[in-house]
Design goal:
There is one protein chain. This protein has 223 residues and is mainly β. It has one domain: Mitochondrial biogenesis AIM24 (Double-stranded beta-helix). Helix content is 4%, strand content 53%. It is elongated, with a radius of gyration of 18 Å. The protein starts with a strand and ends in a 13-residue tail after the last strand. The relative contact order is 0.18. This is AIM24 family protein. Pfam families: AIM24 (PF01987).
């Protein structure tokens, strides 16, 4: 597996390149050029930096984002110095891609190297009738920082056929064959959702990163 999953390491531990974890909830970017990060994720910076809205990257990507709802609003940060980013105190996990691809739930993207190529693709077998599941694909060589709710598990799909709740799967290798299983009878029994459940089925050599939650919980209203 050429993708390297660094997890959330000790505070201040340095990684190859210019991404590092300040702690498990905060990413530190040693910036000398530009980087793409989630809009509003900057918590502090030292040095000289400019922050600009990052468009969809052409009419094709704009239409894909509008139709699918996939992706996260991005900003391009240019300059030199130290940039600190975070999102809702979520756990942060780093991948280093070496001329390969990673499929990511766009809502989990925190930051990535600006020279990585991005696209929005439909999960195989997940058409509109199957919930219209779309994800962001990042390819090339560079760092990707993702957020998860709770400590995730990374599963080696080469060991056995692997299945994950469709809303809990954060990222997986583009080398995997991905299908969709929909269960009706057990919908209220398996998975974290209620009613009809959708499972993603993975086969091949690669990994899938699964978080401990479908996403942030909404606190009940108080009167």
């Amino acid at each position: 597996m050429r993708s390297q999953f660094f997890g959330n390491m000790d505070q201040g531990q340095q990684l190859p390149g210019h991404f590092a974890l300040q702690n498990s909830k905060m990413l530190r970017v040693h910036l000398n050029g530009d980087v793409l990060a989630r809009q509003g994720s900057m918590v502090a910076f030292q040095g000289q930096m400019d922050f600009d809205y990052e468009g969809a990257g052409g009419i094709g990507k704009f239409i894909k984002k509008a139709v699918t709802g996939e992706g996260v609003p991005l900003m391009r940060v240019r300059g030199q110095g130290l940039l600190f980013v975070a999102h809702d105190a979520a756990d942060i996990h780093l991948f280093y891609l070496e001329n390969e691809g990673l499929t990511v739930n766009g809502a989990n993207i925190l930051a990535y190297d600006s020279h990585l190529q991005s696209d929005i693709q439909r999960v195989q077998g997940a058409g509109i009738a199957a919930g219209g599941l779309f994800n962001t694909t990042l390819t090339g060589t560079g760092f990707v920082a993702l957020t998860t709710h709770g400590t995730p598990v990374m599963l080696d799909c080469g060991r056995a056929p692997t299945f994950a709740d469709g809303q809990s799967a954060v990222a997986w290798s583009t080398s995997l064959q991905v299908g969709v299983n929909r269960t009706f009878k057990a919908g209220a029994l398996i998975g974290r959702g209620s009613g009809e459940a959708m499972q993603l089925a993975y086969q091949g050599q690669g990994f899938v990163l699964v978080q401990a939650s479908e996403g942030p919980t909404v606190p009940p209203h108080t009167h």
